[in-house]
Amino acid sequence: MANVEAEEATNPGSDQAESADLIIGIPAAADPEEVRRRATKAVTELLARKPIRVLVAYPGNAPSDSQEVPESELEDTVQFLEYVAPQGSATGVTWLGLANTYAVLLGIAQRFGAKACTVLGADLATLDGESIGLLTQPVLDQRAELVMPIYPPSKYESLLNSGILYPVTQALYGRRVKHPLAADFGVSTSMLEQLVQVPRSGTDGAGDGVIWPATQAVVSEKQIAQAHVHARHAAQNDGLDLSTVLSHLVGSLYGDVERQAPLWQRLRGSQPVPILGSSGAPADDGQPVDIRPMLDSFQLASRNLQEVWSLILPPVTLLELKRISRIPAEQFRIPDALWVRIIYDFALAYRLRTISRAHLLGALTPLYLGWVASYVLEVSSASTYAAEQRIEQLAKAFEDGKPYLLSRWRWPDRFNP
User: Fold this and answer.
1) What is the pTM of this model?
2) Which of 1, 168, 178, 373 is a Cys-bridge partner for 294, taking CB atoms 3.0 to 4.6 Å apart?
C-alpha cells in the first residue's frame, strides 16, 4: 500500500505509469480494510455497467515527514492510494470535506489523468456501485460538471439543511439543489480545480475552509445535476453541541453570501436542476420527537436574549417573537415569513459585524430550535411526502422574501430601530 503526503499528492509533475478515469475520494478517516473491501465490491458493480479505470484514494497514517513518491497498488478491479489527510477543521466538524482535502484529491486526479472525482462521506454509506455511478456518470458523459445527491426523504432528518441551508441557497443563487452542502458529490476535474481556488468561507473560526460546490457551480456557470441515492448517512455529531455545528455551517453559509453578494443580487427566481434516478422509499422517521426541550430553550432565550436580539432584529420581529413565546406549546408556530426575516437579518448582522460572529451565531441557536419545534408540530401527523412539500413551501417563502434581504443589504440603516 502506497503512502502519499499532501504536498506530494498535489504535485502533478511526477511520472506515473498508472492512470484512471475516475477518482473515488474519501476525505475523512475511515478503516482501511473496510474501504478496500467495500470499494472492491462497489467498483466491480460499477464496471459491470461501464468499463472505466478507477482509483480509490483515502487518508492513511503515513508519517508526516515521509518523502515517498505516491504509487498505487493494483487489484483485480481497482487501484488504491493512501494519502496523508491535511489538518482538519479547528471546530472538529469532520464529516464534510474541506478545501485543503479537495486540493489533495485534485492533485491525485491530475496526476492520474482522471476525468472525474466522486467525493464520499467518511461513513462510507455511499460506497456502492449504484451511488457512485449516479454521481459520476453525468460527469464522465460530459452532461454535467457537478452532480449533487438527493437522499431518501425523511421528516425529521437534515433539518438544518431543510430549514436554512437549502432554502437560502435556492432563493439567493437560483438553483433548486436539495442538498447544497452534501458529504457526497461527483465533480469533473476542472470543476474540482475551481473549488480548490475558492476563498475560504467564514472568519473567527466559523466555517473556515468549507466549500459550497453547488454555489460555486452557479458562480462558474457550470451545469449541475442531481441524483437520487438510496443510501442514508448516520448522524455524526461526534460529541459536538448544536451551537457548534450551527455556527460552523451557517457561519460558512453567511460568509459565502457576503462574498457572492454581487452575483445573488442580480439573480431572480429559481430554476429546477435535472434529476437522475428514482426516489427511494422514505426513511423510517423513528420515535416521535420531543419538542419540550426545544421550546424551553426558545422561551428561555426570549427572556434572556432580548438585548442581544435587539441589536440584530427590527422591533416588529422582536414583538412577534415575544408574542409567540407566550403561546401554549400545542399551538406554537413560527410563520414562514417571520423565519425568513430572521435568517436574512442574521445574515446582514453577520456582514456588518453587529456583534462578534461567534455570539451572533450562538444567539441564532434558540431561534433555530424554535423553528424546529414549530415544524415538528406541523408535520407530526403528516406523511413524508407532505413534509417534503412543506419544506418546498418554505423555500418558496425564502424566494418571496429575497427583496427584504436586498433592501436591508443595500440600505441597512433604513431598518434600524
Assistant:
1) 0.88
2) 373
